[in-house]
Design goal:
WH_DNA-bd_sf; transcription; 6-stranded mixed β-sheet; D-Maltodextrin-Binding Protein, domain 2
Length: 321
């Protein structure tokens, strides 16, 4: 029996236990499947037990695996807490807001007021899927987005707090036939091809939400394309392809476009505050307090039952961890 275990091996063990699937667990940890299998074999060898029963059809925990799993989780949580304490509560936090002028920015602004002694640094990059990988790797501290759209193994490494059900909208060229309407019934988008980040590995959760919304309605998701970065590039791409863009009602204004809310039904984009499990920092506490305050004051977590929201998102937004 070894005196020390590499925490990486325990993370591999818990990821496979969460997914019961080596390919999905490897994707959740952003490692090759061969490397994950090698780590599991090494851990089994060092512990002298078999942790999983593997067949061509399924992966299940052995009795020893079930017995040791809570201990592995406890060790990893203790390591996360130790690293958070060692890093010092005064260290700056890097907070990803996706875009300027949205609910996440208001949460950050209020958190800075609540904890002026903390340095909360903003960055603006698109997609919770990409941000989650950065959080797990320790290159980012906090982000916002659709938590249910992440892989289960990724969610297991993160904590989240529901912030808002954001009504969805479409961004249209100013001369688009639908642009004259003040609101766009969802069925009016039938026959349209709508851009929703397809092909961008950092926004998989958003594309998945769009596919769920458009399913059976005759609305196509635009083909994969590089994400337009910067106002001028966005203007050029919109003028060339003229595809409506799926967005939320707080999406920042763009030149030569109009933003119109979607109705009948009103689709909701669930927004959560997301950080690495086990992290202790007054900046995270301030962000959580700010989100609670704004959500309570402005009814961000209230919505009409007639609104559209996937079942998986309903359950995840109720599961605050």
């Amino acid at each position: 029996m070894p005196r020390d275990l590499d925490p990486r091996l325990l993370r591999a063990f818990t990821a496979v236990a969460d997914e019961l699937h080596f390919t999905r667990a490897a994707a959740a940890l952003y490692v090759a499947q061969q490397a994950l299998s090698r780590d599991i074999r090494r851990l089994e060898r060092e512990l002298g037990v078999e942790l999983f029963v593997r067949t061509t059809r399924q992966v299940t925990l052995t009795g020893d695996g079930e017995r040791l799993l809570p201990y592995a989780r406890g060790v990893l949580q203790a390591q996360d807490e130790l690293l958070a304490a060692a890093s010092g509560s005064a260290r700056p936090l890097l907070v990803d807001l996706n875009s300027e002028g949205m609910a996440s920015g208001r949460v950050l602004a209020r958190a800075r007021e609540l904890a002026p002694e903390c340095e909360l640094m903003a960055r603006f990059e698109s997609g919770l899927t990409g941000a989650a990988a950065e959080i797990i790797a320790g290159r980012l501290d906090v982000s916002f987005g659709r938590f249910a759209g992440l892989e289960p193994g990724v969610r297991a490494l993160l904590s989240h707090q529901p912030v808002r059900y954001e009504p969805m909208a479409v961004l249209l060229p100013v001369d688009h036939p639908l642009a004259a309407r003040s609101r766009i019934p969802l069925d009016a988008l039938a026959g349209e091809t709508v851009y929703a980040g397809a092909g961008n590995p950092g926004t998989l959760e958003w594309t998945d939400l769009a596919r769920r919304l458009f399913a059976g309605r005759g609305i196509a998701v635009a083909a994969s394309a590089p994400m337009a970065v910067g106002v001028e590039e966005f203007r050029r791409v919109m003028a060339k392809w003229r595809n409506p863009v799926l967005a939320v009602v707080d999406f920042p204004a763009m030149p030569d476009t109009v933003l119109r809310p979607i109705v009948d039904p009103v689709p909701l984009s669930p927004l959560s505050l997301v950080w690495r499990k086990g992290v202790c920092h007054p900046g995270v506490d301030a962000l959580r307090a700010a989100a609670d305050e704004l959500a309570g004051r402005e009814g961000w977590l209230e919505h009409d039952p007639s609104c559209w929201l996937p079942e998986c998102d309903k359950s995840t937004m109720c599961d605050n961890n």
